[in-house]
Design brief:
about 200 residues; 4 strands; elongated; alpha+beta; 6 helices; four-stranded antiparallel beta sheet; 2 domains; about 45% helix
Length: about 200
């Protein structure tokens, strides 16, 4: 039987390395996996609601949203506090995955691909060194040439039991695909070399 974390891992395997989906069906499947993770939490919560110490009212029992997309702050009181952090993560992950673009894979320039590989390696190295949890943001200002970039790493295990790190990147606090950040950094570096013009 799969855990909520198993379904979260499956959701993140649907996205490409450049934080896009290759097809709309991949995005739908990722969101379906997150909803299954929510179902695991919802089912566990029902046991808590029906326990002797809780004894939820019929209204509260039936007020628990059926799907993840229905969860709002007001619903958290209906859940055991032990589930609050997981619910917050699921809602956040759903927003991230809904914002990812659907882009067919395209060849990248060697220069940008090399820089992207360096960024990914550095993030993985920082996670290993600091033993950071997947949801902690890591400041990568120096790596990105002074741009205000942070990253939220997430450890993913796919159906072949391969574990790897997938990251969400934020520029000035706004979710931004790594390819866009790399292209912007590349342009800024070229402008510096030619005295402010491209």
């Amino acid at each position: 039987m799969k855990t909520a974390q198993d379904y979260i891992n499956l959701a993140f395997t649907q996205a490409q390395d450049d934080q896009t989906f290759a097809a709309k069906s991949h995005q739908k499947e990722a969101l379906d996996h997150l909803n299954r993770a929510y179902e695991v939490i919802r089912d566990a919560n029902q046991t808590w609601q029906l326990s002797e110490e809780t004894r939820a009212t019929d209204d509260d029992f039936w007020a628990v949203p059926f799907d993840l997309h229905q969860i709002r702050e007001k619903h958290f009181r209906l859940f055991n506090e032990a589930h609050h952090a997981d619910l917050t993560d699921l809602v956040t992950f759903r927003v991230f995955l809904k914002e990812l673009e659907v882009v067919k894979p395209a060849p990248k320039s060697d220069r940008i691909t090399a820089k992207q590989a360096e960024v990914t390696a550095t993030v993985v190295n920082l996670i290993d060194r600091r033993m950071a949890q997947y949801h902690e943001a890591v400041d990568l200002g120096r790596l990105f040439g002074g741009l205000s970039v942070s990253v939220t790493p997430h450890v993913v295990t796919n159906e072949f039991n391969t574990t790897f790190t997938r990251c969400f990147y934020f520029l000035e606090g706004k979710f931004t695909p790594l390819s866009v950040i790399m292209a912007a950094l590349d342009t800024l570096k070229r402008e510096e070399k030619v005295g402010g013009t491209v």
